[in-house]
């Protein structure tokens, strides 16, 4: 008799996000003329950079000729892209890596979800609260989370609360953790970890033989030059950290799909190199990102590609500034938005985030994301994103100011 993986029963249903979608459709049906502005989306909206499009066109033409056709590529990705990544992301910041420490894939979501497979089932997992849900859910599926408690937390997970009180930089856990998921710049808080904070975590991981799984999908949004773009800027991190980066938010690849994961050869546990394990895992279960897409990703690091994608990021970051300063002018407190495309809005009073979400929809026709959807510590906050269109963003903030200021 086939039985299912019962760990799936322990997952939190995506009730909140389904409820949000339902509330928006219901509001739309009841108010067909309302001009709803969506500042809840975590997806880019600007079209691909011309340099990226040109490179992908050229790649398609190559595939159209027998002499330059490409079939299966290397599972780990093409060297031309790994080389561009090494130069563009790492050597330029004083970090030296080898080509075979870079694993190119079709997205960070799958990489951060799959990485737990190479660790023991009994590993103790630590996650920030609030955070991108993939880290937790992938470990629930693997049976590492225990049972769900009434406060929304799982019994076997070590939670790292990120609140205004600790500047959204989590404290070291009181219970020993083996796998530690960190995300900076952070989704949803929009805040970053400083050199000092990251140094603290690298030291913890070294002392405890833990591994840090560092999601840096938004590093290209960092404006403050003192903020690290990579955990490998911290001495000693290569022995303790895996790093994930994606072209999704950097270059508008959410629909194109390309990302990469760095597994340094110096990172060993139980006498094995994690690089060998991840390589084996990828070679068995993944057959490489498309040649066309990898050509497009490499073009992000060309002089034109760099300029064009930086222009897109600047556009989103101006939206972030408009949202942040607009909310502050209206007397609200908010976080993030300086080094990330997310603004974490501290809601007034003790109003629950799903209640405020509805109020904002009904009174301003503006959509945000209730903070509680990212973890219990997200309660009392609403996430707004800078991925909207400029005039719509201005209009949304104008409406909020008019209603609440
Ligand atoms: C968007 C996002 C990613 C990127 O996922 P892809 O699968 O590469 O599109 C990774 N981590 C976080 C926190 C994100 O918000």
Write a structural description:
By secondary structure, the chain is of the alpha/beta class. It folds into 2 domains: 14-47 and 310-404, Alpha-Beta Complex (Aspartate Aminotransferase, domain 1); 53-303, Type I PLP-dependent aspartate aminotransferase-like (Major domain) (Aspartate Aminotransferase, domain 2), CATH 3.40.640.10. The chain has 12 helices and 15 strands. The strands form 4 sheets. It has a 7-stranded mixed beta sheet with strand order 2-8-7-6-5-3-4, sandwiched between helices. A hairpin with a 5-residue loop joins strand 11 (333-336) and strand 12. The model has no long low-confidence stretch (mean pLDDT 96). Pyridoxal-5'-phosphate is lined by residues 42, 107-109, 132, 183, 187, 215, 217, 246, 248-249, 254, 259.
Give the CA-based shape: globular
**Structural class estimated from helices and strands:** alpha/beta
Q: Output mean pLDDT.
A: 96
CATH class of the largest domain: Alpha Beta
Read across the widest sheet, the strand sequence of neighbours is 2-8-7-6-5-3-4
- Number of strand segments: 15
What would CATH call the homologous superfamily of the largest domain?
Type I PLP-dependent aspartate aminotransferase-like (Major domain)
CATH T-level topology of the largest domain: Aspartate Aminotransferase, domain 2
